[in-house]
Amino acid sequence: MIDPVFEGTWEDVVRQADRLAGKRVRLVVVESGQDRGAEPTSPCYATATPEERVRAWDEWCSLPRPQAPLLSDYAVSREGIYAPDRD
Length: 87
What we know:
single chain; 87 residues; mainly alpha; elongated
C-alpha cells in the first residue's frame, strides 16, 4: 500500500504511476519559493471522505501530547471554580 500522502517532484510522482493506477489522487502544485508546509485552502473536513477523516483523526490522536503541569486539587474544586469575586 502506498503512503496516503506523497510529496515530491513531478518526476517522483510519475515513477509511482503503476502503484497509483486506478486510484483517485489529489495533486497540489507548490510553486518554487512557496512554503511547502502551507495549509490547503479548504479544511480537511470539507473535502475528505469519511475514511480520510477517520484516518486523519487517528493520526492526530497518535501524536505526542505536550507536557503540561497538572492542575492542583484546589484549581479543579468547586471552591476554586466558583470562588466569589474578590475586589
